[in-house]
Amino acid sequence: MPITQDQLDTLKQLGTATIHEAQGQTGALDSGLRPVDPSLRLAGPALTVDCRPDDNLAIHYALTKAKPGDVLVVDAKGFMEAGPWGDLLTLASQKLGIVGLVMNGAVRDANAIIEMGFPTFSRGLSIKGTNKCQPGKVNVPIVIGGVHINPGDIIVGDRDGLVVVEQSRVEEVIRLSRNREDKEDGIRAGLEAGKSTVDLLGLAPTLEKFGMR
């Protein structure tokens, strides 16, 4: 069953931390991948790219396979001494309807990317350019940040980080995330009423076990 825009919008609103916890503390990419503009969020199916370090030929090829709504997820092997993505690829992607980028490596032209409002996550910035002469693969399983990502898996990103939701689990994860939000709303109400986190989270037995009462 195709993923709907309403589902993607819901995941984006729920946020990465809630989703990660709700799906059993799984799917979080490592914290080295950070947003260029922390104010932007993204959610969409992964168009995966396996490319060589210091070469972006496969990225250009991937754009010929992109569909509106895709998130480009590029494994550049964590290479930080070149920026295989910049303002021109950002513009080309926006014209194709790509909604964001996850780069396991560096990007450049950060100011332009921010001004263009394109959600971009990377390990950092590099002003150095890349070659366009090495082969790569598109729409294949990749591993970034210790997480397996299959083509079509849903990528959710915000200020806190990135999380992957398996395509087949989207509706389940939304339900679990909403349940978690309801539980946290109850905790907030308890805090407002003057209760302690120890009482609300049932931590007294654990504290007693370690002699912390």
Kindly describe this structure.
The structure is a single chain. By secondary structure, this protein is an alpha/beta fold. It folds into 2 domains: 5-167, Ribonuclease E inhibitor RraA/RraA-like (Glucose Oxidase, domain 1, 3-Layer(bba) Sandwich), CATH 3.50.30.40; 174-209, no CATH class. Helices cover 35% and strands 24% of the residues. It has helices spanning 5-14, 16-22, 57-63, 87-96, 110-116, 170-192, 197-200, 204-209, and strands at 34-35, 42-50, 71-79, 100-107, 120-125, 137-138, 142-144, 147-149, 154-158, 161-165. Strands 1, 2, 3, 4, 5, 6, 9 and 10 form an 8-stranded mixed beta sheet that branches. Strands 7-8 form a two-stranded antiparallel ribbon. The mean pLDDT is 96. It catalyses: 4-hydroxy-4-methyl-2-oxoglutarate = 2 pyruvate; 2-hydroxy-4-oxobutane-1,2,4-tricarboxylate = oxaloacetate + pyruvate. One of its GO terms (molecular function) is 4-hydroxy-4-methyl-2-oxoglutarate aldolase activity. Belongs to the LigK/PcmE family.
Unreliable runs:
none
Can you say what the CATH homologous superfamily of the largest domain is? Answer: Ribonuclease E inhibitor RraA/RraA-like
CATH architectural name of the largest domain:
3-Layer(bba) Sandwich
The number of helical elements comes to 8
Mean pLDDT: 96
Kindly report how far apart the N and C termini lie: 52 Å
Give the number of domains.
Answer: 2
CATH topology of the largest domain: Glucose Oxidase, domain 1
Rg on CA atoms, Å: 20 Å
Query: Which of globular, elongated, flat, extended, rod-shaped describes the shape?
Result: elongated
In sequence order, what are the helices and strands, one letter per element? Answer: HHEEHEHEHEEEEEEHHH
Instruction: Tell how many strands the DSSP assignment holds.
Output: 10
CATH hierarchy, class of the largest domain: Alpha Beta
Structural class computed from helices and strand pairing: alpha/beta
Q: Mind summarizing the main beta sheet?
A: 8 strands, mixed
Strand content: 15-25%
